[in-house]
Amino acid sequence: MDGFTSTLAVVKQFRAMGSLPSIFLAVAAIVLAYSFIQSRKRRVTSSNVAHTSPVTEKDEKTNKNREPGGWIAEEFDYPEIDPCSFPLMDVRPVPYRPFRYGEYQITMGIRTMPWSEWIELDSTYSHWQRVRKFRVRTRGHDAVRVLPAREDESVKVQGGAWAAKELVYELAEYLPRRYPSSFRVTRFPNGVPGPSIGGVSLAWGRQQPVQIIEAVETGDKFDLGVLEGLNGVEMGEEAMRITAGLIQEDVALMIEGTDGKYYFQGGAICIPGFWRMRDKIGMTLDDIHISGNVPRFKEKLQMSMEKFFRRMPVDKPVIRNNYFMQVCKPPSHVSDGGVESRLDVEEECASDIDPEELGWSESTNGLEDEFSHGHGHGALPAPYLAPSTLRLRSERQTLRRLPRTGAIVFGIRTYLFKIEELVRERGVADRLASAIRSWPNDVGVYKGRKMYGDILLNYLDECAAREGVQEGGLRYPY
Predict the structure, then answer these.
(1) What is the end-to-end Cα distance of the chain in Å, rounded?
(2) What φ, ψ does residue 468 adopt, rounded to 5°?
(3) Residue 422 and residue 98: Cα distance in Å, rounded?
C-alpha cells in the first residue's frame, strides 16, 4: 500500500512548506535524545499494558532507556491548540500537490507537525462520514479491528485496546479545541473518578476527562463512558469505531514488542483504497513493507526506519505527504438513486455511497475480496479510462507517540483531486508529468503507471503545451 508503506521512511531532504507555518526537517536533524523533566512519571499498572519498568531517580529521560516492549505512562503538558475560526462547511480541502520536478528520490521529506495541525477536517466531512459509516457497517473487521496481546516464545506484544482507548480520549480533547464550532463535549462530573491509564488521567490539564462528544456537522453523539464497562478487544474496537466516526482519516496503532519491532495491533482503516487491513494486521513494520513490495525498502529504508520508531519522542510528531493515481467509474456506471434517502437501506451499494471509490478503488484494483496482497493496480484497464476518470490520490500522513501507552499512531488523511481540475492550476500539468516520468521502473510498477501512463501523460503534455509553463510554480508539497 502506497500510503502505509512508503510513509514510514526516514528522510534526508527538507524544503520550506510554502504558506503554512511548518518547518521541514530531515530525520537526521530530529533530536532523538529527549526528556520530560517537568512531567511526572508513573508506571502503567493495568494488566493489559504489560512489560513496564519502575521509574528511578536516575531515569530522568523518561522511556529513553526502556527495555524493548516496555513503556512508563507519562503526564504530558500539551501545547496550546490554535482554534479554526470557520465552520467546517467553509473550510476548503488543503490543495496538496506532493510531486516535484527532477530526479525521483526513494526517501521523501518529513517535517515537524504543529500540534494544531494534527487532524485536518474540511467541508467534505459529512460526505466522508457517510462513506466511513457505510464501510464500518459493511466491511466489519476489514474496517475496524484490534488485536489482543501476543505472547509466544519469540515475542510479547501488548494488545491494541488500551492504545485505542487513549487515542479516542486524545481526539475528544483535541477536536473541540481545534474546531470549537463543530464539536461539543460534556465531561465526567467533578468528584467522580475519571478514566485513566497507568494512573495518568485521560484528560488534558486538570479538567475531568470527556464523557460525551458530539459532532455538530453530522449530529452524532459518542458516549466514551461506555468504554468503562468494556474490556480487552471489545473495548478497543468500540473506541476505534468512535474514532472512525469523529475524523476523516484512517489510523493504525503501532506497538513495540519485546523484540524491539513495532507491530500493527489495531486500526480504523475505513477508506484505504488500495490495501486491506486483513492482509497486514499483526505484522511488523518490516513485514508490512516487504510484503507490500515497496521498492528498495531493504536497501534504503529498513535500518533507519527501525531506529526512528524506537527513538520517537512524545513531543515531536511528524508529517509527510505522498501521492499516486487511481481510476474511478464515470457517472454513467454509477447506479441511480439518491444517497441521502438510502443511508439505512441494507441493499444500498458502494457506488451509491462512494461514487469516487474513496473506500476501495475497484476500477484500479479489482474486487476488494479478490485482491491479491502486494499486487496493486491489478484490474484490467477499464474501458472508461480517460482524463475525466483519473484522480490524484494524495495522502497526508502523520506519526505521533501517545504518552500513556507509548503506542505510535499513524494517521492517513486522504484527498482525491480530479485531474481535469488539477491542470487548471498554473504549472501543475508540467510538474506532474515530469514527476511521473522520473519514476524508476520498479516505482512505476508499484504505482501502476502501466495502467494509465500513456493516457495521463499525453493529456498532461497537451495541457502544459497550451499553458506554456516552464519549471517552477508552487513549492512542495503544494
Answers:
(1) 23
(2) 70, 30
(3) 12
Q: Is the peptide bond before 477 cis (omega within 30 degrees of 0)?
A: yes
CA distance 433 to 458: 9
Q: What is the b/e burial string over 303-313, where b = at least 16 CB atoms within 10 angstroms of the residue's CB?
A: ebbbebbeebb
Q: What DSSP string describes 416-463?
A: EEEHHHHTTSTTHHHHHHHHHHHS-HHHHHHTTHHHHHHHHHHHHHHH
The Cα–Cα gap between 214 and 194 comes to: 19
The C-alpha cell 508499484 sits at 446
Cell of 432: 506532474
Contacts of 445 (CB under 8 A, 6+ apart): none
Q: What is the pLDDT of residue 475?
A: 61
- pLDDT tens track for 245-260: 999 999 999 999 999 9
pLDDT in tens, 139-166: 999 999 999 999 988 999 999 999 999 9
Alpha-carbon distance of 246 to 168, in angstroms, equals 9
* Residues in contact with 11: Cβ distance below 8 Å, sequence separation at least 6, in sequence order: 26, 27, 107, 108, 109, 110, 320
Q: What is the mean pLDDT of residues 33-53?
A: 36
Strand order in the sheet with 183-187: 183-187, 210-215, 220-223
Residue 297: its pLDDT value, please?
A: 67
**214 class by beta-carbon count within 10 Å (0-12 exposed, 13-18 middle, 19+ buried):** middle
Q: What is the mean pLDDT of residues 278-293?
A: 88
Grid coordinates belonging to 442: 520498479
In the predicted structure, residue 437 carries a pLDDT above the cut 90? yes
Residue 289 has pLDDT above 50, yes or no: yes
In the numeric block, the cell 482525491 is attached to 416
What is the spatial distance between Cα 420 and Cα 447, in angstroms, rounded to a whole number?
Answer: 20
Query: 187 by DSSP, 3-state: which?
Result: strand
Query: Residue 276's pLDDT is what?
Result: 95
Q: Please tell me whether residue 109 adopts helix, strand or coil conformation.
A: coil
Distances in whole angstroms, Cα of residue 268 to Cα of each of 350, 373, 374, 386: 18, 19, 20, 32
Its pTM stands at: 0.84
250-256/408-418 β-pairing: antiparallel
Torsion of CA 10, 16, 21, 26, to 10 degrees: 20
Nearest in space to 377 (alpha carbons), one of 452, 436, 432: 452
Task: Name the one residue in this structure whose C-alpha cell is 518547518.
Answer: 23
